[in-house]
Specification:
This protein is mainly β and 497 residues long. Helix content is 6%, strand content 47%. The protein has two helices and 44 strands. Strand 43 and strand 44 form a beta hairpin. The protein is elongated. It starts with a helix and ends in a 39-residue tail after the last strand.
């Protein structure tokens, strides 16, 4: 009897173990179906603390399995591994790479990440924006979680949450002065109204940009370039740099491999009706459009450098523009693109357009709005005068003119050097009608010191030497060197013997 009872008990216990074993085997069957998607709580893990001293911050998110089957994750890792400033922790285990992690049906795991910041480190070590990513791979799928932390101690305008948003700053008739030695980091689209934005010597402005997504009134999704400083019709901007302390406008990515990358932010936009805007000793780089001047808005820009922009250095649409002692180079398209007329006066300026097939300088008194049909064409008179300028580049036509023929087109080049060829087809009388004492020079030879290294000082035997006409109000070049009183040189730099 006892043996029989013991046998029954052993059989019962064995049955229980068999059930557990079957269940366990069933639970460990992982699906390889790529259609079984995991759902992270977010796509960007943001460390939104502004560090004013050495410190660290930890953030986390959940990765959820909404499916009825187990999912095995092949790997979760930070691609830069130990070189990253971010540290990864999955369900309490710290490592830069985790493999073969199982998530039960309708369960989740926690993914932690931390970053340590010293905001007083130089920007080469602690940039304004620290970025990396977490890569999650399973069943042939890849999920990328962006990591963003703010490293440098800076002035954030208006706040970091404005990324992808529009913010209006009403100056209420006053002057807002930016002169803090700490940089200004601008987020989203910031519009200044009703006053003056004054930016003093040595100030550094960094704009967070890139593609942003939005919806129109009908719910349609569209994309646009984020990161813009907009001067409204009742406002103006005064940039007061110096030779020793220029005012700098650029993106937020200052690592060596990003320092010359164009298109990082949208640009500076001066809206219709805004007048008396001025830039002196400014450096504007790495954006989409350096400055956009719209519909009779006015700007005087002197002693400035605009470069590494993915489209235009200055895009003027019926603008009133005065340019003196400036250098435009390495644009994706044109250094100055002036359309729908306007008034332009330009002296002692170098337009060097290398590496693309667009003209360094484009002047037109019209614009087709519905290209390629051109049933809607805007027109406005053009008055443009260029004196002592260099207009050149790597293409055969670095100067291009478009005359509608129905309204006034007045363009004149005095003591300039330019590179043209096909322009003489639509304008066979170009040199007789539009120029005086100019040089046609279809080469970069015997011109600049080292254009391959972005050195646009004049070469020792440059053909631009002693070809300018003296201008009494412009006695210094872009380097603040004295120009020859009787036989100055063309362009923004006077050759120094």
């Amino acid at each position: 009897m006892n043996n029989l009872s013991s046998g029954k008990e052993l059989l019962w216990i064995a049955s229980i173990f068999l059930v557990f074993a079957i269940n366990a085997c069933h639970q460990e069957e992982f699906s390889n179906d790529p259609g079984l998607m995991l759902k992270p709580e977010l796509d960007t893990l943001t460390f939104d603390t502004v560090f004013t001293s050495i410190g660290s911050a930890t953030r986390y998110f959940k990765l959820y399995n909404p499916n009825d089957e187990f999912v095995r994750i092949q790997s979760i890792y930070i691609p830069s591994l130990e070189n990253s400033e971010f540290r990864l922790n999955v369900d309490g285990i710290s490592s830069q790479k985790h493999e073969f992690i199982d998530i039960a049906p309708h369960d989740s795991i926690y993914i932690f990440c931390d970053v340590k910041v010293n905001p007083d480190d130089p920007v080469t070590i602690s940039p304004f924006i620290k970025q990396d990513s977490i890569r999650i791979e399973y069943n042939g799928n890849v999920k990328i979680i962006q990591l963003i932390a703010w490293g440098q101690n800076a002035n954030y305008v208006p706040q970091k949450s404005n990324k992808g948003q529009v913010s209006v700053i009403d100056l209420q008739g006053n002057t807002l002065v930016w002169n803090d030695p700490k940089p200004y980091v601008v987020y989203g689209i910031v519009v200044f109204e009703n006053g003056v934005l004054q930016i003093n010597a040595g100030t550094k402005i960094h704009v967070w940009g890139g593609l942003a997504k939005a919806k129109d009134a009908d719910g349609n999704v569209f994309f646009y370039n984020d990161g813009r400083i907009i001067i409204g019709p009742t406002a103006r901007i005064e940039v007061r740099g110096t030779k020793e302390q220029p005012v700098q406008f650029q993106g937020v990515r200052l690592e060596s491999w990003f320092k010359d990358t164009p298109g990082q932010w949208g640009g500076i936009f001066i809206n219709p009706g805004s007048t008396d805007n001025s830039f002196d000793f400014a450096e504007i780089k790495n954006n989409l459009i350096g400055i956009y001047l719209d519909s009779l808005a006015s700007l005087k820009i002197t002693n400035s450098r605009i470069f590494n922009n993915s489209q235009y250095g200055i895009l003027s649409s019926t603008g009133i523009l005065d340019i003196q002692n400036c250098l435009f180079y390495n644009q994706g398209q044109s250094g100055l693109f002036a359309t729908i007329g306007g008034v332009i006066n330009c002296a002692y300026t170098t337009f060097a357009n290398l590496g693309n097939s667009e003209p360094a300088l484009y002047l037109s008194n019209e614009q087709c709005i519905d290209f390629p049909f051109c049933q809607v064409v805007y027109k406005h008179p053009l008055v443009a005068n260029f004196t002592n300028c260099i207009i050149t580049g790597s293409d055969q036509d670095e100067l291009w003119l478009v005359d509608n023929g129905q309204i006034s087109f007045q363009a004149f080049f005095k003591n300039c050097l330019y590179r043209i060829k096909e322009l003489l087809v639509p304008f066979p009388d170009f040199e007789n009608k539009f120029t005086q004492n100019c040089i046609l020079h279809n080469s970069l030879q015997k011109l600049f010191a080292d254009p391959a290294m972005d050195d646009f000082h004049l070469d020792t035997l440059s053909v631009a030497e002693q070809k300018a006409v003296p201008l009494p109000n412009l006695l210094l070049d872009l380097d603040c060197k004295i120009r020859d009183a009787q036989l100055p040189d063309l362009g923004c730099f006077e050759y120094q013997y």
